[in-house]
Amino acid sequence: MSSTESLTTPSLLSGTSLLSDIRLSMLDLVPTRTGYSTADAIRESVAVAQHVEQLGFERFWLAEHHNIEGIASSATAVLIGHIAGHTQRIRVGSGGIMLPNHPPLVVAEQFGTLATMYPDRIDLGLGRAPGSDQATMRALHRRPEDAEDFPQQVEQLQQLLGPMQHGQKLKAIPGADTNVPIWLLGSSLFSAQLAAQMGLPYAFASHFAPRMMLEAVNLYKNNFRPSATLAEPYVIIGVPVVVADTEQEAQLLATSGQQKILALFRGQSLSLNPPVTSMDGHWLPHEQQGVEQFLSAAAIGAPKQVKAKLNALLAQTGANELMVVTDVYEQSARHHSLSLLAELAKG
């Protein structure tokens, strides 16, 4: 089955809200754990990709971030190749590449090379944010106004990855005629509108920006124009998920992710810390409110609780696929959480 055919499976486009009727995928930022090295983080990312592949997950995406201590996914295309080389079936891709940071030709060559090495397994998710701060933007030779050309950059990338045209002077080699599937990612309305206009699949980042989730998804679906890529709208929703055998254990494990978001607000290292028995004393009231809003789409708890939360999210959005983020410090507990989630999706 081709990647385009897999996006247009009728059973996934019927608006069903049942967890058992949608696909599961995973987003990984290759988090560095306190007390462990970057090399450890990369090895752990490979291990979790292999684990979710065995569980039947559809795709494993990595995100471009720069100059952020605790996140080791800056060289996104390199890591995609590394993980694809250590897995067999699962689709591996970017969630996403921040396109204004790079010339479209370079992205086409990188992902064309990946698609040549790993046929029909590579996804190219695109965003337009810098993936870091103003100082990093300058280091990347990026200007704030570069994002204004994002629609044109996406079109150029489509052309470079598509069939070679007669008389075409600019060519991605490798890249031409690989037809790497392009996804548009967003946390606001801009990419939702653009994905609808271009007839591309859309992924909303409700794992960190849930406030505009429903508005963005509705805008995308209501304005979708069928294209050669996609006949019907297709939506992925990002969601933080921590499942454990008991609610108490899940809430404990989730404090690692809460500490990470608190550190983000404070401009501190995002290295993942061990869980704590209580966040009381770790945050101020306004910080607690901010973290809870940031994670308001999260599904945390015992299996029945997580299933209820995810089914409610699917009922709200009509999403075709869930892409989970699981920030759990102990890797055995992280793998167990993903296993429990996979079991929920079967029943």
CATH superfamily: Luciferase-like domain
CATH class: Alpha Beta
Q: Which topology does CATH recognise? A: TIM Barrel
Give me the CATH architecture, please: Alpha-Beta Barrel
Q: What overall geometry do the principal axes of the alpha carbons give?
A: globular
Overall strand count: 9
Q: How would a crystallographer describe the biggest sheet? A: 8 strands, parallel, barrel
| Overall residue-averaged pLDDT value | 91
Strand order of the largest sheet: 1-2-3-4-5-6-7-9
Would you tell me the structural class of the helices and strands? alpha/beta
Helix content: 40-55%
Tally of individual domains: 1
Pfam families: Bac_luciferase
GO molecular function, one term: oxidoreductase activity, acting on paired donors, with incorporation or reduction of molecular oxygen
Organism: Oceanisphaera profunda
InterPro entries: Bact_Lucif_Oxidored, CmoO-like, Luciferase-like_dom, Luciferase-like_sf
